[in-house]
Amino acid sequence: MTFDEYVKFTGSPENLAxxxxxxxxxxxxxxxxxxxxYLRDRYARAQLTAEQAAAIRWLAAQPGGPARILVVSExxxxxxxxxxxxxxxxxEAGGLELRVFVRDGVTMLREGLxxxxxxxxxDLVVEYANEKNGQKWASIPVxxxxxxxxxxxxxxxxCPAIYRKDHVIGHLRAARAGETSDQAKVRGGRDIAxxxxxxxxxxxxxxxxxxxxxxxxxxxxxxx
Length: 224
What we know:
Elements: H1 3-10, H2 13-16, E1 20-22, E2 27-29, H3 36-45, H4 50-61, E3 68-73, H5 78-94, E4 97-102, H6 122-127, E5 130-132, E6 135-137, E7 142-146, E8 152-157, H7 165-173, H8 181-196, H9 200-223
Parallel strand pairs: 3-4
Antiparallel strand pairs: 1-2, 3-7, 5-6, 7-8
Helix pairs in contact: 1-3, 3-5, 4-5, 4-9, 5-9
């Protein structure tokens, strides 16, 4: 899907009937929450800096520069809601073709990797799995940058390196002195929701764009 088609899809009965995740309650939900208007609003507010826009235009104009972006996303993921609208803006600024693929089927993948025999987009999920702590994960978002001839230049997965997500979220979810596990879950969900509504959400989105641009620049330098 194009980004616009993906946003429309997120609000469709087909998508909402699929299993999703509510980070505020830290639980699976079905039907899903409808994030389509949030994604429209976030895309409308997402703005690259002048330097970022100039950088992607320069990169796209180079021989063997980026021309296509493959994105794997799910609307229930706060990482996807953070980064995918900005990646769409990056594609727009550089004149890159962007296509979005969903990760999950009717049910949400909870651990490991999907079975490619199950069909759907499992082959893409496995191909672009995240290797972390000696294991492979179907982390999202995934954004893979290709030349016009589909030579892979860079893959961005989950979050920028500067955002130590496991440490931050783990700290927010950890029980405080005197809290029961249920109290910690409620308070942790509230604290995470506040984080997602804070300026750091956009700080990390811009860090993702900077990381992508820098990695593409380094790749092109090495190919010369």
